[in-house]
Specification:
- The protein is α+β, with helices and mostly antiparallel strands.
- The protein has one domain.
- It has a 5-stranded antiparallel sheet, with helices on one face.
- A hairpin with a 7-residue loop joins strand 1 and strand 2.
- Helix 1 runs antiparallel to helix 2.
- The chain is globular, with a radius of gyration of 12 Å.
- It starts with 5 loop residues before the first strand and ends with a strand.
Length: 85
Amino acid sequence: MGVQTTFHAPHGGADFLGFRKSRSGSTEIVYDDGLKQRLIWRVAGGSGDEVISDALQAAMAAQRVLPTLYEELKKRAIDIERVEN
């Protein structure tokens, strides 16, 4: 069974959260609120796709996606750095 890489807000919002591989091969997490905010972070280190997917799924299930995302990444010791877009 594959790992889910994209999530949409179940509570009627336009929030999108996902992860992808960049051209350089690093993993990036993408957040888009559907209006004006698009954020991209590079995952520092070798966190597995399943661990990242679990963190994103937990964040998307919450009402406050971004604060919960940061909390879930920290809980799983996933280090990220902001990518300017």
